[in-house]
Design brief:
Low-confidence stretches: 1-6, 19-70
Strand order of the largest sheet: 8-13-5-6-7-12-11-10-9
Mean pLDDT: 79
Radius of gyration: 55 Å
Oligomer: single chain
Number of helices: 8
Structural class: alpha+beta
Helix content: 25-40%
Length: about 300
């Protein structure tokens, strides 16, 4: 056989052999080495072929290529509902009633207030048109009896309640004619000597006397039939300017005790209600200025005479 025909075949076989060896080497490297698996954060898109160890990428668009499947619309974060406002759920506090009249006021409306209070026995003297302590005490007494705040100040609620319970005062009620008070009867004989608190149940008066001379006189009231004021001759045992009753828990200013728990003292209730009320046995005085002056003059040991 000629040489020229043999060489090309040999070369062809050699080239084929080289290609086969190269291919086998590549396959050997791929099949015999354990491929390092790329870490996928989701861990759900990676699959392996069984027995080959070759990583098979999931079918789908390449990285950075938009997908044919529309992405799910992302929902905006839910906005929390605002907490209900307290002002929306709570009822606003009712406004405070306005002041109509207060201590120190003067005029016709004060006179009308006093006349109306007098109609229902809370003000037991002629209207003066001046809002002083006596009027404040009368208003306070009225408020307490009607379940209102006991302030002594006439506000819109107190005024409307009073208007609903009384009638419009007449001219004579607003300015009653002056009536002369009859002079007290002749003092008891036991009052004619020494320093004496001479107290008459008949005239309902107290006369402060020194050696038979009347120094001052004031209106008084006594206990009821269930708590009568004792009669007789006594002495002032002790005095207490700012006394409060431990038995009845009521103030007894300018108290001058003469028989156990019975005393001569100022009474705000007497000043407001007059003779429609009664004491628990004490001798009540309704003029605070007079009893304050008397308290300063009377001494412990002075005589007290209570009689009819």
């Amino acid at each position: 056989m000629p040489r020229s025909s043999t060489r090309p075949r040999t070369r062809a076989r050699t080239s084929t052999l080289r290609v086969a060896l190269a291919t086998g080497a590549v396959l050997a490297v791929t099949a015999g080495c354990s491929a390092q698996v790329a870490t996928d954060p989701a861990g759900a898109d990676e699959k392996r072929s069984s027995g080959t160890g070759v990583r098979i990428e999931p079918a789908g668009p390449a990285s950075g290529t938009p997908s044919d499947r529309p992405a799910a619309a992302s929902k905006p974060p839910a906005t929390p509902s605002p907490a209900p406002s307290k002002t929306a759920t709570e009822k606003p506090a009712p406004p405070k009633p306005k002041i109509v009249l207060a201590s120190g006021a003067e005029g016709d409306q004060v006179r009308e207030l006093q006349a109306r209070l007098r109609q229902i026995a809370h003000f037991n003297r002629a209207p003066t048109g001046y809002y002083g302590t006596v009027t404040a005490d009368a208003v306070s007494s009225f408020q307490a009896k009607r379940g209102l705040p006991r302030t002594g100040t006439t506000d819109t609620v107190t005024w409307q309640r009073l208007l609903g319970m009384t009638k419009k005062p007449t001219a004579a009620q607003l300015r009653p004619p002056a009536v002369e008070k009859p002079p007290p009867p002749k003092p008891d004989e036991r009052c004619m000597t020494g320093r004496v608190l001479c107290i008459s149940k008949t005239s309902r008066s107290l006369s402060w006397m020194i050696d038979g001379k009347v120094m001052s006189t004031m209106d008084v009231r006594f206990g009821s039939q269930y708590t009568p004021t004792r009669e007789g001759v006594f002495k002032v045992g002790w005095k207490s300017r700012h006394h409060v009753s431990t038995l009845y828990d009521t103030p007894m200013p300018y108290a001058m005790f003469f028989s156990g728990g019975q005393a001569v003292h100022y009474s705000a209730d007497f000043a407001a209600r007059g003779y429609s009320g009664a004491s628990h046995g004490c001798v009540n005085v309704r003029d605070e200025k007079k009893i304050a002056s008397l308290f300063d003059q009377v001494r412990t040991g002075d005589k007290v005479v209570v009689y009819w």
